[in-house]
Amino acid sequence: xxxxxxxxxxxxxxxxxxxxxxxxxxxxxxxxxxxxxxxxxxxxxxxxxxxxxxxxxxxxxxxxxxxxxxxxxxxxxxxxxxxxxxxxxxxxxxxxxxxxxxxxxxxxxxxxxxxxxxxxxxxxxxxxxxxxxxxxxxxxxxxxxxxxxxxxxxxxxxxxxxxxxxxxxxxxxxxxxxxxxxxxxxxxxxxxxxxxxxxxxxxxxxxxxxxxxxxxxxxxxxxx
Length: 224
Fold this sequence. Notes:
mainly alpha; Four Helix Bundle (Hemerythrin (Met), subunit A); 3 strands; globular; GntR family transcriptional regulator; about 220 residues
């Protein structure tokens, strides 16, 4: 369900509508069900408390960024990738994050890595038992590794993929022991970063993400 809140009036309504809709889409489980996700201008207008004009302007911006697409005579839909496109997305993410992990071995401070350990724990972290909580921690872990690499272009490129990576991981973590595998592999990645072992950190991150691709290949049910 798309969660939206009424908007204020201190910033342009188009900008506010854009920010609210983008945030709502980012938080959606876009692969959690089979039916396409259609955006209704009238409902969005009522939910945000504005006219349809800023809604349409915001949707135009979102379409330019690839978050939504317009289908003639059918409406506006949240973009969902095909299985082949998802596998490509995961592969690109693997390249970006593995390089970020290599860079983080030099760029990240000891304080940064202690923070990573504190936030995401070890493979025996009891918080990992809650799937919903872990799903949020999971994507935050990967975003943190990207950030700790200290390369702003990698951060920007990864941000363009985060909508689908977040949704893909949210689905997969609930399937066939993926949560336990993820926790164990995260612990190994943190250890490699703490040891400043760039080769091992890069390898573990790449294998971890490509393991997600293999899992999606076997179990993923996505639009064709």
